Amino acid sequence: MATRDDLIQVRDLKKHYHGDKIRALDGVSVDIQFGDVMVVIGPSGSGKSTFLRSLNLLEEPTGGSILFEGIDITKKKYKDESGRTVKLNIDELRQKMGMVFQHFNLFPHMTILENMTLAPIKVKKMSKAQAEEKALALLDRVGLKERANDYPIQLSGGQKQRVAIVRALAMEPDVMLFDEPTSALDPEMVGEVLDVMKGLAKEGMTMVVVTHEMGFAREVGNRVLFMADGLLVEQGSPEDIFEHPRSPRLREFLSKVL
Amino acid sequence: MDQLFKLSNFSKIAPYAQLFRQGLLVTVLLSLFTVVIGFCLALILALMRMSNFRPLRFLGIDKDGHQREGGALLAISKFNPLDFLATAYVEILRSTPVIVQIFIIYFGVFSMIELPNFQLFGFIKFNRFFPGVVALGMNSGAYLCEIIRAGIQSIDGGQTEAARSLGLSQTQNLRHIILPQALKNILPAIANEFVVIIKESAITYTIGVQDIMSAVNAVKGATFVIIEPLLVATAIYFCLCFPTSKLIAYFERRMSHGDKR
Fold it and tell me: Tens of pLDDT along B78-122?
């Protein structure tokens, strides 16, 4: 059973396509604890995005289990504390997991403020005033309060990604998932987004970050996973991974990216 | 050599101007009702075509509770009866002539259903007008369905992923994220369909709807003048359709302007 500190337990997670021909994930097991900043690195096609997207079921795994706060979310039904069988409510679950995408995915037909208040109002049933107050406070934190009434198209890439991060935070998630949050940004904008993420990490937010930013992995991550070919090849502290890589696959990867 | 038309013939048909005015009103009303009915029907059809209703879904899950990776059972589990029905409807309606559909609706369906025999505005026969609207609406619904479906599918999948990962349900995603963006994209296509409907509505004179074409026939019968009433009808249809499509083009330009910084 999950201990108090375990937020997510992934066991033997598999995602196969076309029979068994394509194995995007081929048996990944990992524990994510409260306060972890887990950074997932690896070559493209290694399955790291699939792994991350499986955590909130944007990808449906074909095998294994994911225990999130003690509930196996890969099953359609589970037993609650009193032993009754309950249908898994995927929407309720996803509120607790904030997700930030490579391409921001802001809603272009809504202002920044509307982007941020939509889910709190519609899903959490917050009042409009309350949601707006909270959204403005969050925007202020990332220095974008004065852009609240602009549309996403009027913002730069870095600004959009900062909005995307606080939009997810507005739902007060237990964990934040980042899917290559800086990969679509111009180089000079990467820093501003990473700074926001560092701030979050310092506050103790649990984070899972798929990234190519090795500097961020080393500096901010407390655990680093190295994936290749759908497998978790090596995991450890940033020092373990970057200074004392054991597997030849990881050494080869690091020699290319560092 | 004979002339195409004689000016004197226009003065012969001038006393029947009222028929053309009434015909114009009928054509406009017919088109408006058709586009509304067609749009509602199309929205339902499009949602059916994109629904995820799979009553045999359980066949695709193995005994451990996981999704099967292949095989016949997986294929059967993906069968969606709503999608099947909507697709069949659209394909049949798009592959048969409108006039056949109108005759089937009027002589078939509405020979079984008795319609009240009254007149709108004192001259529009409801029991002719209504079947015309239904038939045209059903037809344009099939075409609009494909327009709406294309519009919804043109929205980047990332939008749905973002909405769902914020905890919005499928319905909330559709209502607040997908449809507003899709409708904006397909507005020009819908408006074009409106122009098509105005022109296509001419065919309803065959079941006795008193539109512009039926005014042409009435005048023809009364005066034995053929070309001149047709020229009047041509002018009226042109004056309806040309400004409409120009208006659409204007809104199209304005909307694309809004997408720029």
Answer: 889 999 999 999 999 999 999 999 999 999 999 888 888 888 787
Residues A168-187: pLDDT tens digits? 999 999 999 999 999 999 99
- List the single residue in A61, A63, A94 with the smallest CB-CB distance to B165: A94
CA distance B53 to B77: 10
Residue B34 maps to a domain: yes
Task: Tell me whether residues A63 and B66 touch, CB distance under 8 A.
Answer: yes
**Best residue in A116, A123, A171 for a mutation probing chain B (most B CBs within 10 Å):** A123
In a domain, B142, yes or no: yes
In this prediction, residue B63 carries a pLDDT of: 74
Tell me the whole-structure pTM to 2 decimals.
0.81
Hey, what are B232's tokens?
Answer: 């009047």
The CATH number linked to B194 is 1.10.3720.10
| B153 close to A (CB below 8 A) | no
A168 vs B contacts (CB less than 8 Å): 165-166
ipTM of the complex model: 0.91
Q: Do A122 and B176 touch (CB under 8 A)?
A: yes
Q: How far apart are CA B195 and CA B185, in angstroms?
A: 18
Q: DSSP letter for B115, please.
A: P
Q: With CB atoms and an 8 Å threshold, state whether A91 touches B167.
A: yes
Q: Sign of the CA dihedral A181, A186, A191, A192?
A: negative
A118 touches chain B (CB under 8 A): yes
Tell me if B193 is assigned to some domain: yes
Residue B142: what pLDDT? 95
Give CA–CA dist B246/B251, Å, rounded. 9
Say how far residue A108 (Cα) sits from the centre of its chain: 22
Asked if residue B151 lies in contact with residue B185, where contact means CB atoms within 8 angstroms, the answer is: yes
**B98 lies in which domain range?**
9-259
CA distance B183 to B46: 13
> Residue B157's Cα: distance from chain center in Å?
27
CA distance A197 to A192: 9
Structure tokens at A48: 């790291």
Q: Which residues of A touch B166 (CB under 8 A)?
A: 94-95, 118-119, 123, 167-168, 171
What's the structural domain count of chain B? 1
Asked if the structure places residue B3 within a domain, the reply is no
Q: What is the DSSP string of chain A?
A: ---TTEEEEEEEEEEEETTTTEEEEEEEEEEEETT-EEEEE--TTSSHHHHHHHHTTSS--SEEEEEETTEETTSSEEE-TTS-EEE--HHHHHHTEEEE-TT----TTS-HHHHHHHHHHHTS---HHHHHHHHHHHHHHTT-GGGTTS-GGGS-HHHHHHHHHHHHHTT--SEEEEESTTTTS-HHHHHHHHHHHHHHHHTT-EEEEE-S-HHHHHHH-SEEEEEETTEEEEEE-HHHHHHS--SHHHHHHHHHH-
